[in-house]
Amino acid sequence: MSSTAILSPGAGYAIVLSISIGFAVVMVGITKLQNRYSVHKQSQLQEFASASHSVKPGLVATAIVSSWTWAATLLTSSAQAFSNGIGGGWFYGAGATVQIFLFSMNSVMIKRNAPRVHTFLEVVRCRWGTAAHLVFLFFSLLTSILVSAMLCVGGSDTVTALTGASTQAVCVLMPLGVACYILVGGLRASFFADYIHTAVLYIIILYFMFNVYTSNEKIGSIQTMYEKLQQAGVEYPIEGNKNGSYLTFRSKSGLIFMALNLITNLGTVFNDQAYWQRAIASRAETAVSGYMLGGSAWLSIPLAFATCMGLAGAVLRGDADWPGLTPAEVSAGLPAAAAAQTLLGSSGAAVLLILLFLAVTSATAAELCAVSTLLTYDVYLPYIKPHATDKETLFFDHCAIVFFACVMAILGIALFYAGISLGWLYNATGIFVASAVLPIAYCIMWKKANRIACMTAAVLGCALGVTAWLVTAASLNDGVVTIATSQQDYPMLTGSVTSFGVSLIISTLGSLFFPENYSYDDTRALHAHSEASEDLEPTTPSEEDKEAGEKATVVPKFNSESSSLAEGGGSADELSLYKRKFNLARNVSVPLFVILLILIPIPLATAGGGYISSLAGFKAYVVVCFLWIFYGIGAVVIYPLVEYRKELGDLCRNVVQDLRGKRIPREA
């Protein structure tokens, strides 16, 4: 920010290192408890990579909230509220949460059509062959690279702004620190770390909200915030907002951003193995519930945080403690950091850094797990060493985690020197990856999807999207294309709509006119034998085995579900279950799409030429933010404790018995 950093560089490094080391210690503890007191062992490849496909919906929801809470969730949403008023939090939150609801349909279909895969790309390779596999592998890796870049750039910019710490050093420390604890615990333990991340994240958001709206001397009440927003509309009117007001949804730039946000995040959800991994790790009968809970809970975070910190920044610009922000720093997402510093001084800056770094580390962990799984199951096993043992595969998975952590660090440093901001990365992502959204979904869900049409749609859509983006930027700026001109609203929107729209037309019409008739028998049979133990109820060895000196281990035994699916079908009850779950996902996600993106913002933006909120309306809006945060806490902090209450009780009893020397440890 424009003034001297309020915290020392040492404080910045201390927060970065302490959180990384702290979670590494937590991972060690969780892993030891899991290995000692459960049938799931981190030394088992399938447990490390896919959590044995057994995670319950509440914890899946928590992991979705954790992995979807990026630096941009906190920083860009606040920058939108700072720049576009009260609609900013809604434009970000609603434009990025409907994808989670829509993805719940994918979560059902991948459990139905490929119950044992580790990545969605295994389905692509099995159904459409090597060429298609490589095309969509490129888009998936590109998505993870762009998401990782946003994490590094957003996190490092804020740490540097508040502490003066070296941006390059922070770019290195963030991913490598996270890699350390992922290497220890694998996917299941990362779910438990996600739980801790999410619980602390909600607590800190509530801390800021109560401070801003109830006690802080600079604002301290909803009415004072409202009055200051009215004043800000006079002193710092927003171009494109009705009457320059901060209290209206009629915001040209905000509505354009919402459309951009929708397309961008369709790409970053549907193409990202991190979200498929949550579906793959969940139970078939509860996958939809996990995504519904996660999506509805996540919306509370950008909505509440932006309404609190983004608007606080907007009304504090004349305060003596305001550090000052350049347009580039606003694009980098720093209004929240400036507001925290102005409201609470060094303590506010420290708390915001902790909040931000928790968000960055949880999302980074998701990307490291996702990319390492892609490199293992979609590069190493199919193309390098198809007959690798589980031990060799697990070792490669570990190496892939370290490799991508290094890539993230190098990428963050490179973007720092290139002068590319979080805002530019966020808005441009959809141009590059949105063209792969529908082809990937069609491959998993639609038996008629045509391979050639979908491959062409992805590649041509991306190429034309980039072309439209740059041509529009040049035409609106007298032929000048720079980072600044390419980040303008209309070039970004044109490129994103072109990328997604071209893909929609080609993939849909190509599949309708030249349909395939794929049965999914091959994908249902993937890993049916090599991963049989994942579907089976463990049984203890017989007395004869013990007398023969065999090691006491878990013996897999097929159940009816694994047998029927391995044969490529599924019982009538199973098919009925999947149909009900898919219908639930569709019947919830489609209406929510309409409500969140059309029925709420559009009337507010257009009724009477654009509604400017009254004090009563603003109070209601803030109260809804508070209530939604409490709902989120119930859904993804309290509910997972309830659903795992038996396991937690058993764990506590076993620990007590161990301490008393009365328990016989389970053999590995």
Topology:
Blueprint: H1 9-37, H2 45-50, H3 57-68, H4 71-84, H5 87-113, H6 120-128, H7 130-163, H8 167-215, H9 222-235, H10 252-270, H11 273-281, H12 287-298, H13 300-315, H14 327-331, H15 335-384, H16 390-418, H17 422-433, H18 437-445, H19 451-476, H20 483-486, H21 489-513, H22 521-524, H23 543-547, H24 560-566, H25 572-599, H26 601-606, H27 615-643, H28 645-659
Helix pairs in contact: 1-7, 1-8, 1-15, 3-8, 3-11, 3-12, 3-27, 4-5, 4-13, 4-15, 5-10, 5-11, 5-12, 5-13, 5-25, 6-7, 7-8, 7-15, 7-16, 7-17, 8-13, 8-15, 8-16, 8-27, 9-13, 10-17, 10-21, 11-15, 12-27, 13-15, 13-27, 15-16, 17-21, 18-19, 18-21, 19-21
List the keywords.
single chain; 668 residues; mainly alpha; 75% helix; 0% strand; globular
Largest sheet: none
Radius of gyration: 25 Å
Strand content: under 5%
Q: What's the tally of helices?
A: 28
Q: Which spans of ≥5 residues are poorly predicted at pLDDT below 50? A: 47-52, 531-569
- Structural class comes to mainly alpha
Describe the 3D structure:
- The chain has 668 residues and is mostly helical.
- Helix 4 runs antiparallel to helix 15.
- It is globular.
- The N and C termini lie far apart (53 Å).
Quick summary:
The protein is mainly α and 668 residues long. It is 75% helix and 0% strand. It has 28 helices and no strands.
